[in-house]
Specification:
The chain contains six helices and ten strands. By secondary structure, it is α+β, with helices and mostly antiparallel strands. A four-stranded antiparallel beta sheet has the order 1-6-7-5. A four-stranded antiparallel beta sheet has the order 2-3-4-8, with helices on one face. The longest helix has 20 residues. Bound molecules: zinc ion. The site of zinc ion has 7 residues, from loops.
């Protein structure tokens, strides 16, 4: 499943394809083509068509959603499990190409989603805080809002395994399963530590680790091993640099202990029993 770094990579890739952002080219949405009426949910065709003729502003990311903004509302997209965008040049469509959008600069994009867990929806102007998909989302992990004090104040009210709690999207978005194990290893904190037992210093260390892991993943285009292609079509390379995730039974790169794993909250969890203290 695409995680935050992959979605951010895709966001940057799309702005690059469309030449949006830095050069501030004026691009008008010229048309849309709907190959099916629904993906995970119904596609609101009429509302989306209302932004045809509008100027497209640079594409943004919020959590794992992509927002194609105009002043009259936005196209809101989630990649789901297998969704991706690619530049469309008029070639015959592929199986699972569900939606096309074309622009005044001659560029076009197509959304492909084999498993159809993705979302294409309309977001009315200034409605992010009340939108059904976005209103419950916590702070962005790479923003200054996500800091040691914030994490400490949230965690002191929570009990349960730390790893499950840092993956709660209402607390902070984008700490997916792979990143949670890797960040906890980097911060030297055990995934089964009780969340309310973290002191401010540990929170500081964990915040820094989460940001570092996500930035590293971002620099290499994401971590997902299967089912994901960047806008340019390359697989992410972060997968090769994982320290604990997927390494059960192998030796720790820091201390040579054997990496352990267990299912926590329904998700595979990996840690070094020596480096990570409970
Ligand atoms: Zn170790």
């Amino acid at each position: 499943m695409p995680e935050l770094p992959e979605v951010e990579t895709m966001c940057r890739g799309l702005n690059k394809i469309l030449n949006l952002g830095k050069n501030k080219e004026r691009i008008i949405i010229e048309g849309m083509e709907f190959k099916r009426g629904n993906i995970r949910s119904k596609i609101p065709q009429k509302q989306l068509r209302s932004i045809i003729g509008q100027k497209l502003l640079p594409i943004r990311r919020r959590a794992k959603y992509l927002i194609f903004p105009t002043e009259m509302g936005s196209l809101l997209n989630h990649l789901g499990m297998t969704g991706y965008w690619r530049e469309y040049n008029g070639e015959p469509l592929l199986k699972h190409d569900h939606f096309l959008i074309n622009f005044s600069n001659g560029k076009a994009l197509v959304f492909n989603d084999a498993r159809r867990f993705g979302v294409i929806d309309y977001l009315s102007p200034q409605s992010e805080a009340s939108n059904i998909w976005l209103k419950h989302l916590g702070v962005e992990p790479l923003s200054t809002d996500f800091n040691a004090e914030y994490l400490f104040n949230k965690l002191k009210k929570r009990s349960g395994f730390l790893k499950n709690i840092i993956m709660d999207q209402k607390l902070v978005v984008g700490v997916g399963n792979i990143y949670a194990s890797e960040a906890l290893f980097l911060a030297k904190v055990h995934p089964k530590k009780n969340a309310n037992k973290l002191n401010l210093k540990m929170c500081q260390s964990l915040v820094i680790s989460i940001k570092e892991i996500l930035k590293k993943a971002l620099a290499s285009g994401g971590s997902t091993i299967r089912d994901f292609r960047q806008a340019g079509g390359e697989l992410g390379y972060f997968a090769r640099e994982l320290k604990v995730y997927g390494r059960s039974g192998q030796v720790c790169t820091a201390c040579a202990s054997t990496i352990k794993s267990e299912i926590l909250g329904g998700r595979s969890t990996f840690w070094c029993p020596k480096c990570q203290k409970k």
